[in-house]
Amino acid sequence: MSEGKGLLSEMNDRSREVFRRVVEGYLASGDPVGSRTLTRSMSEKLSAATIRNVMQDLEFLGLLDSPHVSAGRVPTQRGLRMFVDGLLEVGQVAVEDRERIDATLGSNTPDVATLLDQVGAALSGITRGASLVLAPKQEAAIRHIEFVSLGPDRALVVLVFSNGHVENRLFTPPPGQTPSSMREAANFLNALAEGRTLSELRGSVQRDIAARRQELDVLARDLVESGLAVWENMGERSERLIVRGRANLIEGGPESLDIDRIRTLFDDLERKRDIAEFLELAEDGEGVRIFIGSENKLFSLSGSSLVVSPYMNADRKIIGAIGVIGPTRLNYGRIVPIVDYTAQLVGRILSDRALG
C-alpha cells in the first residue's frame, strides 16, 4: 500500500471529505479554498470553525498549505499525489473529445511523423496544455543505401526502407572522396543491409569494419564510418519528440507556471535532450502515469505535472509515448482518459499500418 493510501485509510470520513473538497475546489478554480466555502458543500452540517480545525490537522500532515494570510488552503505536492492515488475519479472521454481525436487519426496521412504531429496539435487543443509525442524509431528493414556527392564538403545519404519510407540525410564526408569510393562504400553497406534495421546494420557494420579493414579502400572506410556517425550523432535520430501547444502554458494567465522556467523547459525539449528519459518514464509499465512537481524527473519544475502513456506495436512492444504537460492544477480526471485513449488509438493505427 502506498504512503498516501495508508494515510487516507487512517483518516476519518470528515477529514477525508474536507481534504477531497479542498483539492477538487483548487483543481477547478486555481484558488485557495476557505472554510466558509466548504460549509455550503459538505455532506455533514459543520461550522466554519470545525472545518478550520480539520484543515489545520491536514496542514500539519503536510497535505494542505496556506499560500497567503487568508484562511484558504491549497493542496501540497504530497496532497495532490495522495488525491491522485486514492481519491481521483477518472471519467470517460467526452464524446466531442473522442471525435476530435478520431478525426485526426482517421486522416489518410501517409507519413507517420506528420500524423503524430497532428495528434499532438489535437491533444494540446483538447487539453489546453502542451502535448508531447515521442514518435517511434524507424524499425523497418533497409532495402537500399546510396551516397550522393553534393560538393567537396557535402554529401547525402539516401536510406530506402522496406516499408517504402525514404530518408535523406546531409553529412560532411571525409576529405578526398571520389565517386568510386562512394560507390564502394554504398556497395559494402548494401551487401550487409538486406533484412536488417538501421540499428542492426550499425552494429553489423562496426563488426565488419573491424574484421575486413584490409579489404576496404581507406577513403571508402572513412566514408562508411562518417555515415555511421551521421546516423548516431547529428541530431537526426529516427525518434522524434514533437512538442505542440507551448503557448497554452506561456499564455495561461496568472496561475500558469513561471514563464522563464517554461521557456527553459521547452528549449530543453526542442533540443531533444530528454527523449530517452521521456520514453523511460512511460516504459515502467502499461497505462497512464502521472508525475507531479518534483517527482517529474523529465522536467524538474516544481509547478508542473506530466500525464504520460506509452503506445505499443502489434507485438505489445513499447515504441513511443504520448503525454500532456501543464500546471499541477490539471483536470486529471478528464486528461487521464484522453491521454490513455489517444495512446491506445495511435498504437492500433501504427500496428495496422505496419501489418498492411
From TrEMBL:
Record keywords: Repressor, Stress response, Transcription, Transcription regulation
SUPFAM superfamilies per UniProt: GAF domain-like (SSF55781), Winged helix' DNA-binding domain (SSF46785)
One Pfam family of this chain: HrcA
Keyword Transit peptide (UniProt): no
The UniProt record lists the keyword Endoplasmic reticulum: no
GO biological process: negative regulation of DNA-templated transcription
Domain Heat-inducible transcription repressor HrcA C-terminal: 115-336
GO MF, one annotated term: DNA binding
Protein role: Negative regulator of class I heat shock genes (grpE-dnaK-dnaJ and groELS operons). Prevents heat-shock induction of these operons.
PANTHER family in UniProt: HEAT-INDUCIBLE TRANSCRIPTION REPRESSOR HRCA (PTHR34824:SF1)
Family the UniProt entry places it in: Belongs to the HrcA family.
Name the record gives this protein: Heat-inducible transcription repressor HrcA
Protein source organism: Neotabrizicola shimadae
Recorded name of the encoding gene: hrcA
